[in-house]
Structure formats: structure tokens, C-alpha cells
Fold:
Amino acid sequence: MAHDKVSAEWGDLMFDDQDMQERLPKPTYKKLRRVIDDGEPLDLDIANEIAHAMKEWALEKGATHFTHWFQPLTGITSEKHDSFLTPNGDGTILMAFSGKELVQGEPDASSFPSGGLRATFEARGYTVWDPTSPAFVKDEVLCIPTAFISYTGEALDKKTPLLRSEVALEVQAKRVLALFGQNPRRVVTTIGPEQEYFLIREEDYKARPDLILTGRTLFGCAPTKGQELEEHYFGAIRPTVNEFMKELDDELWKLGVPAKTKHNEVAPCQHELAPVFEQGTLAVDDNLLTMEKMKLIASHHGLVCLQHEKPFEYVNGSGKHDNWSLAADGKNLLEPGPDPEHNLRFMVFLAALIAAVDEHADLLRASVASAGNDHRLGANEAPPAIVSVFLGDNLSPVVEALIRKEHAEAQEEELMDLGVPALPDIIRDNTDRNRTSPFAFTGNKFEFRMPGSRQNISDPNVVLNTAVAEQCDNFVTYVEERADQDFRTVAMRWARHTFRDHHRIIFNGNGYSAEWEEEAERRGLPNYKTTPEALPALLDPKNIALFEKYGVLTESELHARYIAKAEQYAKLINIEANCMVDMARRLYMPALSGYAGDIATSVATKAELGITSAAEKSLAQRITKGADTVWKLADELEAKAEKARSLEDPKAQDDCFCTVVIPAMEALRAEVDALEAICADSWWPVPSYNAILYYA
Ligand code: ADP
Ligand code: MG
Structure:
């Protein structure tokens, strides 16, 4: 019964293969499949037929409008709705949708961040249909996944470089596979993003201007109980939350999003949803859809879904684990096979990945840098800001043994048959789960754990795809230069040398320890703790060269991305600072003043009767003094934010927000939080952590 319901509803609101097959003339369907499966260019002749079929289908699903659904540099999705309605001129109407409208749109999108790529006088940006991601109906709107580019063809969004990087990786991976005598039709990435989030009561949310304006609490003393009992993780799910999760699953399944696992996370009120992995760009689209649906559906249950990386101090923040692998015609390339040949191939891809991560660790770090994520990385709850690779206690010795064979060229064949054939067993038994590693091999995929919960995971995947493409290219070049030698020996040697040269990136120990920080420094691994330190990697000549070489991003596109991210950081911290000043002056100050006044009146009244209270007197004094401090710290914060705002250079401005404004925010918060801990609950103007995190 339940199964029938799910299979009946699965993909109901997604224009999937079955719908295409049923509704398109056979030749058109075949052409479209070739566009989707083989990346053939779209023939405009068939666009009209597809648009018509899509519209008829969408009307049946209750749609009245269509939109090009795209991902500007804000990271979230954007849409502008147009109705299908077209007047006939005789008072009647027609529901129309042309091939042109399907394929290309021109949103009046001059207000999206473009990092300077698009001056407003040349504000035209185009949305272009991405046929590889299925259209869907959401809230009576036919949504068409699109890329967003400028008049001159520059990427203005997150999707375009991701699509380009998938192409680059496919081309290079196919060259590698060809050397192994394999010629798959498609090589794609597979991605399974695990999404963490918080759910709190709407009434608490509405009573906190900081949550409303910034997505996180900027004040709040520690809750009496934190996550130390570890009772929330995988614990029984609250009935309201359960109802939310059920509705979310239903909605996602209808949209063809393969939501799979749901559970409570470590922090109180924190949860996770993991989907079944899909082809990379699709997985990114579906993750965005999931995030959007989470917010909407929470509101049906009197809840608010917080996707910020750090909504609450003192308990864990939220991340998004990016599970990543490569598949050739559906076969996972990070899965060692039954014979040495497959295992050699596995070792080559493994080495390529390790080299990619080591060479561009700075870029990977930059790809997950944001004001929100700065609260997580390196805070002993998420991976450190240092990028390293975890191979586990089983696979590591194999790699180490390989490196040690350095001077025993003759033994290469032997080694391959000795150490490596047992690989599938070794890896199957790999239950090792080092949670402190930013980049962990988990049996048949890598799990990149640094991305923040709120971010669009295109960025890190663009870096991964391109960096791995480069290493595949290196491998092929190496082999081609040694065409007269035995391929397997040469391939093994490349893997061995690559593991040796990038050995420093492999770390299986505790990533939270202070020793690792020192050790990483000795190894020369970058450790960028904050966004302003991490972002300039986008402008590093070696990284520009990488992206240009593989046609993923041009120098000017990269520069624009740097500017957009740097500006976003400054804007976010500025909003937080303003919000704190405002709350301090207009919420906390009146509360403190009122409460101290109350006590003072009580002290005075009692004194007339000859009653004295040492506690009351000292409390009134402490609170009054505290209020003075709060007032002063708010003034200081305001002045520092003002100074940061006045700086014009993006890097200097970010640095100022990071090193001058944030400490002033922390000082103000510390004083307010200390006062919250001694102020009467009835006087406190906003809900406390206790109330928010432990609702019934
Ligand atoms: P856990 O990491 O908690 O043990 P799983 O290993 O089952 O859980 O998977 C976690 C996530 O990784 C899921 O979203 C899953 O779909 C995804 N995943 C599994 N295999 C792959 C793969 N080959 N490529 C990409 N993602 C994958
Ligand atoms: Mg996992």
C-alpha cells in the first residue's frame, strides 16, 4: 500500500523520460535523448515540439505559469513567473508556450551580483535551458532549469561552470579509460549531498530580529543543557517534526528528488536529510529544491527551517557533506574491481584525486568560504580549515607500501598482484569513520565535509571536477610519453610517484587536535581560518591557469566571482553588526534599565520598612553597570562597522570586518549574554536558547 503510494507519486511533478516518450513524436524524443545523454547540441526545430508537449503536461498538473529557474551568484535559486496566457484578440485566450520561450529567456536581472561582469547599462543576462536537468511543476509553475549567462557568454551563475567542469572531467576521464581499453559512452560525477538543518518554532523565530534578519542568533547565553548527553543524535523524532519530514518526503518524491534518509542530528533541534546520489548537476539542482521545500513545508507545521551554518552558539552548526564519485556508464570508478586490471584503474583514479586535492587545497577551501561557514571550520565540530585526505586504516597501508617500493621497479608487477588484488575486501571492510577529516574516502566515494549547510554546492564540485580533470590529463600525458613501455608498469609507476609527491595531504589522525595544526604547517599545507584569508586563492595564477586550461572559468569570470564573494562577506557581517547595535539599544537596553529600575524601586520601598537585601542591591548595581557597558560597546561596534564600510578595496574591507568588526561584535555579545544569565526571564526581550532549543 505504502509502496504503491510512493511509486504512484514518484516523479509525478517532474517531466521525466516516460512523459517525454509518451508525449513526443518518436524522432523528436530520440533527438532529445541524444541531447540529454550524449551532450549533442539542441536542434531548435525540435524545441517547439518539446515546448508544446511540456506545456500540455504542465497544464494537466495545474500549472498556469512557467519560469526559467536559475542560480545567480547569490547561490540560491531565482525565478520570474510568466503565465502561459496569450490573448487571441477576440476576447478569448490561448495557453501558449513556444520553443523560444523554453530555450532562452531574458530576465530583467540587473540586480543580481555579477562581481562587476555586467555593468547595469549592459544589464542583459540570458537564461538558457539545461535539458539534462528535468523540468518540474512547483506551486502551479512549470520550472525549467537554466544556466544564466551574460550577453557576451560569460557565466553569471553557479550552474554554467559546473556544466563546463563536468564536460572537462568527462573528456579527460575518457582518455584515461581509453588507455585501459575502455570506451564508455558517458563518464559523469555522482553526488549525494547530505543536508543538515534546524527546525524551531515559528513563534520563537518571529520574536528574534537576529534570526529574521541574519538567519542566526547574534546573542544568547549558553543553554542550561547543551548536546553533552548526546541524546538527540538519531533520537526519537518529535511528532511535529515527523509530520514535517513526511510531508517533505512526499513533496520531494513527487518532484523526483530521491530523498532517502532522515534523522535527528547532534545538536538539539538539528536534523539531516540524505538523498540517493544522482548525476552531479542534477544532484545540485535537487539539493536546491530540497532546501527550498524544507523552508516552505516547515511553515505548514508552525516551524521555521534554519539553514544557516551556525544558528546557535554552544551547539553544533550545520554542514552539507558532498559525497562524490565518478561513474562510467553507471559503473563507479572509485570501486576497486575483482581483478588487478580494475584495481590498477582504481589506484590511478585514487592517485589523481589525491593529487587534485593537494594541488588545489587552497581552491577547495575558498570554494566553501563564507561568513557563516567561518563559524564551523576549525571549531571542533566540523572539519578543520586545513584540507587533508583520509584514507583509513585499511587503504592507507596499501598506499604506503606502494610508495615504499620506490626503488624496486622490477617488483612493480609483483606488487600489483600482491598488495592490490585484495583491495575490494580491504575496502569493503572499511568501516572506519573519521569524522574529523575534511575529505574522507568512505569505501567507494569521497566525502567532502567542509561545505556549509546553506551553500550551493556547485562551487566545491566545480573545483573538484576541474582539478581531477587536470590529473587525469597528467596521467595520460605521462603514459603517452612512455608509449614504448608496458602500460601497466607505467601506470603503476605514475600512481606510485603521485602518491609519493602528494603524500603530505594524506592524514588519518584527529583533525581537531592542536598537534595536527602544527604538523600541517610543517607539511606546508595551507590553513586559512577565515573567509578573507581563503578567498584570494581564486585569484592565484596557478588556479586561474587551471580553470582557463579546461575551459571552466576565464580569468575575468573568476575575478568576478572573487568580487561577488568578497562583497557578500562584507555585506553579511555589516548586517549582523547593524542588527546587534539595534538590538542592544532598542531591546536589551530598555530591558536592563527597566529591570534594574524595578529592583531599585523594590530596594527603596523595603528600605522604608527597614528591610534590606544585599542581593537586590548588588544585582541592581551589576545590571546598571552592565547596561552602561552594553551601551558603550554598541557605540564602539557602530563606529568600527562604519569604518569598515568606508573602505573601498574589497580585500581591505573584508579584513577590517574580520579583524576589527567581528571582535567588537563578540565583545558586545559577551556582555549581553552575561547579563542574560542573571536577568529575570520575564524581563528578557527575546526567547532564550533554553526556550528555543527545548520546546515541547
Ligand atoms: P553514510 O556516509 O552515513 O554511511 P552512505 O554511505 O549510505 O551513508 O551515503 C551517504 C550519502 O552518500 C548518500 O547521499 C548516498 O547516496 C551517497 N553516495 C553513496 N554512494 C555514492 C557514490 N558512488 N557517489 C556519490 N554519492 C554516493
Ligand atoms: Mg555520510
Remarks:
- Residues 555-608 form the longest helix (54 residues).
- Confidence is low (pLDDT under 50) at residues 407-421.
- Residues 222 and 313 are 7 Å apart (CA to CA).
- The chain has three domains: 2-157, 178-186+329-549, 568-693.
